[in-house]
Amino acid sequence: MTATGIISALIIGLIIGALGRLVVPGRQNIPIWLTMVIGVAAALLGTVIARAAGVADTSGFDWTEALIQVVLAAIGVALVVGVTGRRGVSRY
Question: Does residue 88 contact residue 35 with C-beta atoms inside 8 Å?
Fold first, then answer.
């Protein structure tokens, strides 16, 4: 993978991760780097799923693939927030 490909993957991952965070209700106390990691993983997995389903090869922008990626990012953010808990929120 070239340097341009890596930078593009990070930028796309950041966007997908941010969109995933917006979908999940409530406040998420996770760092931006973790959002980026979740976004990159969701983008890669979403592309694999879209290609397997046959919806990745369309003319123009692939809305179905993007929707799959954002949904996966939202699931990833929700899982991470659920596992790490909501730090900083008092339960008493």
Answer: no
The domain containing residue 40 runs over which residues?
Answer: 6-84
Is 57 inside a domain boundary?
A: yes
- Cβ–Cβ < 8 Å for 17, 36: yes
Whether 50 and 66 have beta carbons less than 8 Å apart is answered as no
Tell me how far apart the alpha carbons of residues 75 and 62 are, in angstroms, rounded to a whole number: 20
pLDDT digits (tens, 9 = 90+) for 59-83: 777 888 888 889 999 999 999 888 8
Q: Can you give the pLDDT at residue 73?
A: 92
> Cα dist. 48→22, 54, 69 in Å?
23, 10, 10
